[in-house]
């Protein structure tokens, strides 16, 4: 990356810097600290993984809409593949945990979305429909980038026998790293031709999605549900 000098990675670097404190809060929050230690209760992880599977369906829809809005053929292919990976590749990860925890299709379908999951999906899909491609890229980027950063951090300190090793290895893996690098590059390309006003909206979207990343994990840790 550049040093914020207006080069090709200027937006992504600036967005990460603006939200560095939020990322540090996410990295050290109880859910991720206990996940790294392998001490996160299975009931908590089970709650999280079911909601995450629901979330990825909505995330895949938003990625598909980004593909439809992409200004060039390469972007259509990139976002279409990302949507496919969100549904197919990560479903395989969830499927392993679902089998371990005895979660069948009916149990999954019958589990309602939590307020945090519903809010995050609604935000991304609304952004996909209502905002231009540049803002949508910025809203989608934190899910890629923060998961990669958290995955790398946990991988560096997790024991080999950690019960959540499959999750850790997925988000610290090379395939996911390539997807994240591609998303960062696509967002920076979009920002390069955006006006200052549009870049400001991109920053707002990146920050809002970062907040929702924290809210999703915090909600899973607290087993938060609808109050009525």
Give your account of this protein's structure:
The protein has 228 residues and is an all-alpha fold. It has a single domain, classed as Up-down Bundle (Heme Oxygenase, Chain A). The protein is 79% helix and 0% strand. The chain has twelve helices and no strands. Helix 4 runs antiparallel to helix 12. The longest helix is centred in the first third of the chain and has 28 residues. It is globular. 39% of the residues are buried. The N terminus is likely disordered.
Q: How would you concisely characterize the structure shown here?
A:
With 228 residues, the protein is mostly helical. It has helices at residues 10-18, 20-28, 30-37, 42-69, 73-87, 89-101, 105-109, 115-130, 133-157, 165-171, 174-192, 196-222.
């Amino acid at each position: 990356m550049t040093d914020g000098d207006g080069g090709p990675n200027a937006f992504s670097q600036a967005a990460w810097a603006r939200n560095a404190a939020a990322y540090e809060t996410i990295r050290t929050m109880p859910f991720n600290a206990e996940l790294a230690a392998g001490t996160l209760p299975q009931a908590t992880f089970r709650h999280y993984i079911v909601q995450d599977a629901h979330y990825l369906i909505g995330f895949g829809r938003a990625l598909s809409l980004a593909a439809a809005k992409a200004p060039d053929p390469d972007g259509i292919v990139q976002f279409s593949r990302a949507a496919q990976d969100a549904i197919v590749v990560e479903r395989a990860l969830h499927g392993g945990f679902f089998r371990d925890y005895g979660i069948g299709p009916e149990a999954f379908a019958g589990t309602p979305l939590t307020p945090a999951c519903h809010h995050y999906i609604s935000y991304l899909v609304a952004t996909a429909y209502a905002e231009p491609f540049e803002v949508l890229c910025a809203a989608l980027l934190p899910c890629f980038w923060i998961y990669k950063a958290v995955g790398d951090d946990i991988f560096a300190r997790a024991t080999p026998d950690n019960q959540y090793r499959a999750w850790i290895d997925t988000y610290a893996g090379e395939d996911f790293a390539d997807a994240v690098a591609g998303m960062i590059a696509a967002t920076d390309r979009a920002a390069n031709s955006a006006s200052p006003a549009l870049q400001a909206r991109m920053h707002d979207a990146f920050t809002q999605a970062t907040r929702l990343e924290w809210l999703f994990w915090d909600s899973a840790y607290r087993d938060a549900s609808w109050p009525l």
